[in-house]
Write a structure and sequence with these properties.
alpha+beta, 10 helices, 14 strands, about 350 residues, 8-stranded mixed beta sheet, 4-stranded antiparallel beta sheet
Length: about 350
């Protein structure tokens, strides 16, 4: 990863054409944005999935969401309100800290944890209008506490609680996804062992918000992603039938999406969908993504529904795929091409 300038500080300066040039994406308008479909993103109720009287109908909705959209809003997810409130508060407070305090937690060479930007591989690639902060949160023994901020003073506790609650949510969702495939729940029992939390801070860009991206188009190289919108500023767009669909933030929901490793496991039935983040002219946006990954020494293999089904993906080593995914700049779903059988 190459170090780049802090975008939050950059956005606070008087922007010149030269300064912003590396952030301008000339192909940003290559596909239509269909705002009228924002309300079509499926909503799945974890409470109904957990209730014998409604589970069958909700499992069908979950199957549809994974097959047709690769994204869904998860309501009644069971994470206590006070845990959500605490992690939102501390994410906002962290990014309000002075730059020198945040830089005390800067990414170190070769490490994805810490404060900075990921996926910067060359000095001439287009940059994203965002600052990131990544932490390995699960398993607990994988944590490097030197990256965990001591300011705000409640940060460590609130993120620890949130991380633990999300592990329960991820396990529940994975179990019900197995049910949609008529697969043994044991097949997914080890798919959410590792968790990485990443806060994203997308400053406003008053000068040319329509030309910069907070995050370039990509799919997630993990098993499942669970996203919390921190401050309800719209920005996330998902690729659907060749167009971009803006996702409306819901205060009562977590946004879940299929990752590349789940696409491999389902032999392509459930697709990891490209998504990107646009930037607002007047408001900053904050989000917290939780990426759930199998053990790095494990493998993911396609699970076939019927014996005559054609195998479309190779059995893939998790560590190898993760290394490939993280060592490239974000570019749609190119990493997944390496796992496909020609």
């Amino acid at each position: 990863m190459l170090p780049v300038r802090n975008v939050q500080a950059l956005a606070a300066d008087e922007l010149t054409a030269d300064t912003i040039e590396r952030y301008i994406h000339p192909d940003i308008d290559a596909h239509t944005v269909l705002a009228e479909h924002s309300d079509d993103v499926p909503v799945i109720d974890l409470g109904k999935l957990s209730s014998p009287g409604s589970v069958e109908a909700e499992v069908e909705k979950l199957r549809f969401a994974c097959e047709e959209w690769g994204f869904f809003q998860l309501v009644n997810h069971g994470v206590p309100d006070e845990v959500i409130t605490g992690v939102r508060r501390d994410a906002e407070k962290f990014f309000q800290l002075p730059l020198d305090v945040k830089n005390a937690y800067a990414q170190r060479p070769g490490d994805l944890q810490g404060y900075g930007q990921a996926f910067v591989q060359s000095n001439d690639q287009k940059l994203d209008w965002a600052d990131m902060f990544g932490l390995y949160t699960q398993p607990i023994q994988a944590r490097d506490m030197s990256y965990w901020p001591s300011q705000p003073h409640t940060f460590r506790n609130s993120f620890e609680e949130y991380s633990s609650e999300l592990m329960k949510v991820a396990d529940s969702v994975a179990t019900f996804i197995a049910r949609t495939l008529d697969a043994d729940p044991e097949l997914v029992a080890d798919k959410n062992v590792v968790q990485i939390l990443r806060m994203g801070y997308y400053p406003k860009c008053a000068s040319m918000p329509e030309k910069v991206l907070g995050f370039s188009p990509h799919s997630d190289g993990y098993f499942l992603t669970i996203l919390l919108e921190v401050n309800s500023v719209q920005g996330l767009q998902i690729r659907w039938h060749g167009a971009w669909i803006p996702v409306k933030p819901r205060r009562d929901a977590l946004l879940v999406n299929v990752g590349d490793l789940l696409e491999i496991m389902t032999n392509g039935k459930y697709k990891s969908i490209e998504h990107r983040v646009t930037v607002d002219a007047h408001k900053e946006r904050l989000s917290i993504s939780a990426f759930h990954v199998p053990n790095l020494d494990g493998v993911v293999s396609p699970v076939l529904g019927v014996t005559e089904e054609k195998v479309l993906y190779k059995t893939t080593k998790v560590e190898e795929y993760s290394r490939l995914y993280m060592s490239n700049k974000l570019d749609g779903k190119r990493a997944l091409d390496h796992a496909k059988l020609s």
